[in-house]
Every structure is written in structure tokens, then in C-alpha cells.
Amino acid sequence: MAATNTTKTGQPFDRDVLDSLLRRTGFYMPSFEIYGGEKGLYDYGPPLTALQSNFVDLWRKHFVLREKMLEVDTTIITPEPVFITSGHVAKFADFMSKDPKTGEIFRTDHLIKQVLGARLKADQDARGQTIEVEKPDEPQKKKKIKDVKIEKLDDAVAQEYNETLAKLDNYDGEGFNELIKKFDIKGPTSGVDLDPPKPFNLMFQTYIGPSADKPNGYLRPETAQGQFLNFQKLLEFNKQKMPFASASIGKSFRNEISPRQGLLRVREFLMAEIEHYVDPESGKKHEKFEDVKDVKLTLLNRHTQLAGSEKTEVMTVGDAVSNKVIDNETLGYFIVRIQDFLLKLGIDPSKLRFRQHMANEMAHYAADCWDAELFGSFGWIECVGCADRSAYDLTVHMKKTGAPLVVRENLPEPRKFKEYQVDMNKKKLGPKFRKDAKAVENAVEDLSQDLREKLSLELKDSGKITIDTPNIGNGKTELDKDLITIEQREVTQHIREYTPNVIEPSFGIGRILYHLLEHVFWTRSSESQDEPSARNVLSIPPLIAPIKVLIVPLSNHLDFKPFLRHLTSLLDEMDVANSIDDSSASIGKRYSRNDELGTPFGITVDFQTVKDKTITLRERDSTKQVRASQEDICAAIESLVRGGCRNLQVKR
Amino acid sequence: MAATNTTKTGQPFDRDVLDSLLRRTGFYMPSFEIYGGEKGLYDYGPPLTALQSNFVDLWRKHFVLREKMLEVDTTIITPEPVFITSGHVAKFADFMSKDPKTGEIFRTDHLIKQVLGARLKADQDARGQTIEVEKPDEPQKKKKIKDVKIEKLDDAVAQEYNETLAKLDNYDGEGFNELIKKFDIKGPTSGVDLDPPKPFNLMFQTYIGPSADKPNGYLRPETAQGQFLNFQKLLEFNKQKMPFASASIGKSFRNEISPRQGLLRVREFLMAEIEHYVDPESGKKHEKFEDVKDVKLTLLNRHTQLAGSEKTEVMTVGDAVSNKVIDNETLGYFIVRIQDFLLKLGIDPSKLRFRQHMANEMAHYAADCWDAELFGSFGWIECVGCADRSAYDLTVHMKKTGAPLVVRENLPEPRKFKEYQVDMNKKKLGPKFRKDAKAVENAVEDLSQDLREKLSLELKDSGKITIDTPNIGNGKTELDKDLITIEQREVTQHIREYTPNVIEPSFGIGRILYHLLEHVFWTRSSESQDEPSARNVLSIPPLIAPIKVLIVPLSNHLDFKPFLRHLTSLLDEMDVANSIDDSSASIGKRYSRNDELGTPFGITVDFQTVKDKTITLRERDSTKQVRASQEDICAAIESLVRGGCRNLQVKR
């Protein structure tokens, strides 16, 4: 399915028009604007804040309540050791290149992409024209690039550029540095050689407590770790039953090198994450898979992408799992639930696809990953990740802390088997290795059964063995038979112990909301005289619309006031968000203003109301109007606003 | 009204019993516990997370929707200049004292309080016994204090100690240092002299962007500043209408020197704040005051406290405002709305009072402040502040940035008056004062009318004037008549421009939830045989209870399964949070477990259900049971769960 950049009514989509609408009507604004702004930080004004809280409410009902998930609220501030263990301190980084002359800092991969892209474009144009590239530090301003290479390229060079761009995700700092030298990439505004690329960790640092003299903590880049650290308690809360899921909604942070693309790449953002814990030996079956197996999905798998294509396939999730396109039922079930949720929100189904990650683009912890991508004016953008994190996180935290982040399951029948067991003489171990004793012990415990078998023979033969101990002395440690025994023994197991695998649906709420706004935006050409001729509309579904009802008196006539008060209190009692616009603008103008805010219903109070207490209800998308009693109309609105939640059938 | 530390059924309240219940049932846990924990950070488990999200939902309905407030979501990360302007960089600090021998850091005021308190206690006991004080860094552990002064005190000394303690909030670093020397206070574990007290800013620092080589931002300590910075846009969104309120719910942070008291003094916490903007010349009237004027409040005013008493008075808010106990209607209206909200939540009305701040304890920005204090096992604790921040914040940000954070109002009649106006010759000003020119200009503009009158005469007489310019040279600047003219002129004003005052109700959500749990906790002695004899109950109101319904099958009999599935999906459709407990424990045990979780309703599926499809509904507080059809009982539950929100009448 090829998504096209048009509104739902087939008009070409114009991002500038939507963006100016969103800023003018207070959906969002750059944070600290009166102080000159701060890149990558945005404040949500009243309409977007309400939309976001309705999103969160719906998400909780759709996932937490329906799936009986265990929602937790863990802290943003996280001490450093947690992220050392999780791998984020070492690996959660982008490379940056500094221009020594101007002091500008560029995200290295973006810079290479821009420069090679610009050269390829110049080549295509086959003219030595000046190309404009975005200066990452100031996304609003375009800067002319100084690049000696703006000319027609050899075919071989052009091909090399294209190949390099295709696999840019595979490079590290050294690799980037070689590319920069090889392709003679200079500072884009200065023309001088750049400093070699350096990794920049994307976590915000902070100082916890009054005695910290260097940063000792981070703002979390995801809510996941807080959930993993509580695994044991959550399993207990769930009365030791597997599988189960935890969930969390909260702010996370990434200190982006050069934030851009408005609400899509920001430094502070709201996430909703689910960690579904599953027995790896269960085949990752899901008990409700049968209920969803006929739901169709639009998929772009890894193999298609490897073949250089973006062609999606539509298939049922049942077929996708049985054909191993999607690895297992649990992953498939969540992909369906994610799709259901996005469509309930009002996402355009033709602008939704699920794309499997290539091996080289997965996060360091992931074993498989499908993204829900939404199409908009920035192209296809990842908005929900659905990753199989395998047992990675629980394993590393358990290893580091010794906390039993495992499931213990009574076996229906005891299991008997033979295994090589190691006993160490701890009385002698301590005095001999002192501070390294624990590390030696760990290294021994980590020995595989195969190695243990080999070492047991060696120990019998020579009375001593040598094992690898990477962090101690020369990396080898000798142990003699006074210190260690290795024997094969028969074991009877009554309890099975295993580390669960984790399937993680992870929602970037701001990205989804931004795409929703693109998808529901269109322009109406009105034929009615008292409404302006071309009007922007946000067709946000009533279920999540920021304000549900606008109450509009025909004029400022005093006779209307009691009706306004009555109607607003009637709706307030129903917890239906409403507002009154008694300004002097024409009714058409007042409705038009609220079409831009996505308000689905309008109520008019006029002289007929004063006579017979009836009011007019106007529906935003059709502009159709009906007249009825105040009570009937308010009840109808309540049911439309709530009904969306209970009865909406997802259609594809 | 003297609050007593008993449960609602009159039993003595035992904090240890509640605390162990809350930890055992997963309400909360110390964050990063498997890494040894991190002081002042707690994770909320499933029951408390659900309770918190129900709190937020109710808060939004009660305040944002009903009062048509403009909710915004602004960023946590804040660049330094904002908090320099707001005064937080200079003033949002506590003093800390370091023990040079042990490296321990103490919050200075707490240390003085503890030591003097310990001496006074020793004096009372009239024996030189060893006193135990809390060591702030390790609140769990009590340490013996080394203090040479443990003996009977002279009457004059004891009186001086008491007086010092009463006014401890008035001291700064120098003052604390003098107290420490005067009273010979030493390091409590080492007995050596402490380093002089140093201010420790309570904001967490961070580094924004890749080029920051020193901290250039903070995590906000309140949501308020984000709201103030958007004032202009919010006023525009409100179509220039005054008064109006903005609101925000989000995490804030305080890097406490020594966190303690569990959930009450933490480093990361959820706040809900309202900034109500009001015309200072309106007398701060409120249009809905008439509706609430007969509501009774329990008040502890400033005068009573100055007289050394804690005696509260019960009076209507109407009387309180007309007697000027509460300064104005707007403050009074919000105090009533805060009380309504707290009672809806389930706060015990006998454990709620409103206490006016003393002049010396108000934050640097506040003009008046009433706290809603809740009584619990830690005494009376501030849980909601209701401060009049006057025009402080908007004024300082406007002055710093030049952004017009003001209201402009068309006057019904033009206003004519005379005023002294200043004109400066900017062409000469710049070259003469260079970088200081702007500062000189600002100093001139800030001159009062009285001063302008005086200076205009001086300028006429001597041809030059001298004005105060504190930050330039010697603090005085001379200006001659080439540079400045001052004249009285007649002005006609068509527009009135003013900076609104701000009334700020600010909710510490964790503190309120903790007190709620204390207030709804009690122990039932059951006479029924199949229920354990003494059982803990959390009588959380259905409206905000984490889980509303527990579904319990009599046994694991297969015939019950379809009913469990039907009931859970019936309740799911109604968005009523429910869970199934089909474990093998007795029904009494299963209910008892859920009484501890505050689940208000239980449904039993038994053999009668299989016969006639009826089920039993059990109510948590009374343990009364009724039998009816599945549909009737689910509908009744839905209405009880929602009805609380719409129909609950607040009684005092």
C-alpha cells in the first residue's frame, strides 16, 4: 500500500498550514519562548494537553484494564549503576563531530547523510549549483553549505555514496572518521577539517544528594528499567502466575545532539510502555490469539527490506505467525492490539504499517522488533516499537545484584538428570584471592557444562586447572584441587527456574499525537454564507477530542444566560468537557474557530430556545444540525462521547 | 478541634502495621531496592499507581473541567536563566553542615532542632541519660549522640532553647553558624566542630545539549514557572478574558539534603498546580463565591499562632472573608474547593485543617498562604498550599525578558490624569554609557512619580541630576539635561494595562495519598468462621479505589470458568477495573486479601450461579452480601463506582 501525502478528503497536505494552525490555536509552543526558547523542548497548550490526557485514559482502558496489566510508577531519576548494568552508559550514544573553528556540533551520521545526499542531488541535477542543507543547531535556518564537491559525480562514486548511505547505521566512531576522510567531508559552514567523531551519551546527567561532586545519576531514557527492577515484587503481586505484563506511563528523556522535526524528535517526552513477561519455553503462545487471528495487518518484513524494497503485504496475523513472518503469537497479539488502539484514536489506516527492524538497527537489547510506523509529512516514522527484548535485562540485573529475577515453577513431575557441579573451598579462596575472590567464584560458576566436563578431567589428571578471568591480573587464574572440585552428579529437580523473556510494546505519545493531527486535518470549502469560505477542520474522534461541546448563544442577549448556565452545568455533571463562547463574533466564525480545535459538537441557544427550551446540535464534520430538548441533546452527546469508547468497532 | 491519632473506628493507629501492609501488598517500594536503594525515591506498585491515576482523573474533573481551567503540560527540564529570574537559584536552598571528620552532611536546621530538642528532653527527664537522635543520612538507623551538654539546664538556657526553636525559620547561614557556636553544637557522631553552614540549592542540576561543559539547566521544583512563561498565550487562548486559571499536573523535583518520613519528603514527586490570574484592583472577588459562602472551614490563623496557640476555629468561609481572616473571596473560594476535593477522596474531615502561614515561613514569592494540613502519624503535614503569589513571578519574568506578561483592558471611559514623563536622548546615551546604557535607561524608567517630581525641579535648577544605579560603577550616575528631560504632562488612557495577581492552589499528590491511606485504614475483628480473626481494611471510596471488583469462584470447578469470563468482560465493557482471584485459598482469605487492597466490591460465583445465573455481591466495609442476576449486579456496581463522582454530597 503506497501512502500518499494527502488529507482524508484527498487534498494535498500542507504542513505549514497545519503547523501555523497548531501554534495559533495553542496546541503547542516552544518551551521558554520568551527566553529565546530551548531546542527540543515544547510545551503543550490546553488542546494538546487535553488530547494527551484523553490518550492516556484510553490507553489505560485499552491495555492496562482490559489486559489486567500491573501498572507501576517508577522514578525518572536513576542512579548510575542501573544504567551501567543495562548497557546504556556504554551504548546509548550517538557520535558527534565538532567544527574546531566555529564550535558547532553535528550529529555525525546526520552530517554525512546530508553532505552525501547534497552531492548526489547536485549530481542528479548535473549542475554545480549551491545546495542548501539544514544546520542541525538551528533547524529553522537553512545555511548554505561550503562543499568543494558540488559537481557531477563518477558513476562509481555515486554508487559508493548510495551504498554508504544504505548502511550508515552499521558504522561506529572509527568507521565514521574513515568515511569523513575518504569523502573529504568538512565543516559545512567553515570548510575546515572536523575533529574526529566522539560518542555523546544521550542520557541527561544529574547529581543526587548533597555530597555528589560528580554526576552520579541519569534521567531515564525509557521507563522499562524501573519495571524490570521490580520484577520480583510484580510476580509476587501476580501470585506467581505467568505470563503477565507490567506497564508504565511517564516522562523519559534523551539529550539529542541536534533536535529537529518539531514534536517528533524532542529531548523530553511522554512514553507508555508495556513489559510482557513470558516463558521462553512456552513457544510464546498467547491465550487470546485465537480471538484476533483473522485481523489483517500491513507488514513490511526484514527480507523485503534486505532486497531493497519497501513493498508491504497485507495478511492476517494468523497467517503471519504460522508463516513465521511474525515470530510468535504473543508478538502478533500485541501488534493487533496496537493497531486496534491506533485506529480507535483516529489514525488513518492507510497511513499505518508495521515494519520489522533490520538486524543492524535494533537496540542493543533487542532480539526482534516490529515498529508501528505512521505516515505523514516527514515520511514513515516509528511511533510504537514492539520489541522482543529476550531475557537480556532481567539477566544482567540479576547477575549484577544477585536478586532472583526469575520465575520458579513447581514441576508436575520431578525431573532427573546428570550435571557437572562445582564446589569451592571458600575458606581457602578468600585468603588466597582477597578482593578478587568473588570474581573468581563468579567465573567458575559461569563455566558451561562442556567446559566443566573437560576441566574435571584436567583436574583429575594434573591436580590443577586454569580458567579465564578477564578482569583479574593477566586474565588467567590457576586453581588447584585444594580449592576446587568438579564432579558429575545426579540431580532431581522439583522446581523449574527460568528467566522470562520480555515482549515490549513501547509508545511514543507525542509522535502518535502529532501524526493523528496530520491525519485528521482537512480543509472545508463552505457554501454557507455565514461561515468563512475555506476552513480548517481537525476531525478528532469525540472519544478523545479535547473539548466535546461548544455552547454558543446567538448573541449576548440576557435571556440566553440562564440557558448557558444550565447547559454547562448539565454537561459538567456528566463530566463532558464543554466551553462557552459568548464573544461577539458571528456564529459561523465561532464554530469555525472550534472546528480548528477539533470540538465535535456545537450547541446553539437562540430565541426559539427561550420560547420552547429546545436547542440546536451541530456536528463538526458534516455541519448537520438537529433541534431537540436540552436534556435529549445532552444525553445524546454523552452517549456519543462515551459510546466511542465502548462500542467502536475497528474496521479496516 | 483536636485531632487524635486513631483509626475511624477509634482504634489506636499503628504506623508500622499500615506500613508493612503497604509494602507487603505492593502499594510502594523503595526505588532501586535490588541496587541497595536510593534515598528519597520510591516506586509506586499497582495499587498505588491506580489510586494515583484515579486521583488525577478526579482532580481534572473537579478543577480543570468544572472551573474551565486551561491545563498545560510544560517541560521538567528548565534552562538556568528562568530560575535565576524567579529567584530559585539564589533562594531555593537549605543550609547544610558537614562533619569534617566523618564526611556526614546534615541539614543545619534539622540538626539544631534535634540537638536542642534532645537537650531539652534530657533536661525534662532531669537525668544525664544518653539520648538517641535520628541520623539524617540514615533515617532508619538511630545513632547515639555525643553531646557533652546532657544534663539539667538552667531555666534561662531552657527558655532560650525554646525561643530559638520557635523562630528557627528566621535564620540564614550566618545566623545558624552563630547558634552552633553559641550552643556548642558538634558533629553528632564525631563530637568535632562542624564546618560552617553552606547553602545547598535544592534543584537538581543537569546539562542540556552536547556542548554544555557545566550544568546549564535544572529539573523544575514546581510546575508554576512553566505556566507563568506561557501567560500571554493562555490569555490569548482565553480570548483576553479575565479572570482565568491555568493548571498543570506533573513531576517536580527537590534534591533534599536528607530525605525522610517515607512518602512525605521525597526527591521526586507528582504535583497538581493551579495558577488563578486575577485583577488586583477587583478586590479579588469570585463570581461563584455566593454558592459556597455557607461552607464551614476549620481554620488556624496567623494571629492565633503568634500567640503561641494551635487552637482552630470553625467558621463559614463567608464569615472568614468578611472578617478578613481569609483575605479575599478568590482565596476563600479555592480553600472551599480544596476541602470539597479532599473530602470526596475520603480524607477524614476531623483530620483536616487550614493553617495560615506565618510571615517568616512563606516562600520568597508569596504574599499570603493557607495550607490544607492533614493529620496523621507524623502530626499535621502541609499537603495543599494555597498561596497568593501576588504579581511577583509575572513581573520578574516580564522585566527580564521584555515579554508583555500583562492584561490590556479597554477602559469603558478614557481616563485623564497628569504624570511625570521621562525622555532620554538615546543617541547620546549609547555612546556615553556603552554597555551600561540599557541599565541606566531601566533605572530611569523605574523612578517613582514622587522622585520624578523632585528630580524635574533639580534638573531645572542645576541642569543635572544624580540617580541610583546599584549595578554600575560606584552606584550613582550623573545625567545632565542634554541626556534627559522630565516633564509633567496630561495623559489620556484608553487602555488599562496591569499585571495580574496569582492565587496558587498547589497539591502534593503523594502526601495526600499517604494520608488518605492512614485515614481509611482500620482493623476488623471478624466473627465469621471462614474469615481470619483480625483483618486490615482500607476503606478507599469506590470512586478512586484501585480495583473496583474482585471476582471470586467458590472453587476451581470447571463449570465456573464461563461465568468468570462473562463477568470480567461485562465489567471490562463498562471500564470498571476488576480482577479474578481463582487461587485455592478460602473465599474468606481471598476477600481479606482484597480488603487490604481497598477493593470495595466482591462477586462470588458458586453452584447456585451455575443453576440460576445469580451471583453474590459483597460490600467491603459492611461485609453485607446480596444475591441477584449478573447484569443487575454489574449495573449496580457501575452506578456505585461512577455515582460517587456525580452525586456525592460533601457533608461535614
UniProtKB/TrEMBL annotation, chains A, B:
Top EC class per UniProt? ligase
Q: Cite a GO CC annotation.
A: mitochondrion
Q: Which residues cross the membrane?
A: none
Query: Which InterPro entries does UniProt cross-reference here?
Result: aa-tRNA-synt_IIb, aa-tRNA-synth_II, aa-tRNA-synth_II/BPL/LPL, Anticodon-bd, Anticodon-bd_dom_sf, Gly-tRNA_synthase/POLG2, GlyRS-like_core, tRNA-synt_gly
Record's catalysed reaction(s)? 2 ATP + H(+) = P(1),P(4)-bis(5'-adenosyl) tetraphosphate + diphosphate
List, for all copies, the residue spans of the domain called Aminoacyl-transfer RNA synthetases class-II family profile: 112-542
Cited Pfam families: HGTP_anticodon (PF03129), tRNA-synt_2b (PF00587)
Check the record and name the SUPFAM superfamilies matching this protein.
Class II aaRS ABD-related, Class II aaRS and biotin synthetases
Keyword annotations = Aminoacyl-tRNA synthetase, ATP-binding, Cytoplasm, Ligase, Nucleotide-binding, Protein biosynthesis, Transferase
CDD domains with a match to the protein in the record:
GlyRS-like_core
Supply the EC number(s).
6.1.1.14
Q: Where in the cell is it found?
A: Cytoplasm
Instruction: Give the NCBIfam families listed for this entry.
Output: glyS_dimeric (TIGR00389), PRK04173.1 (NF003211)
The record's family statement is: Belongs to the class-II aminoacyl-tRNA synthetase family.
This protein is called: glycine--tRNA ligase
Which species is listed as the source? Answer: Lithohypha guttulata
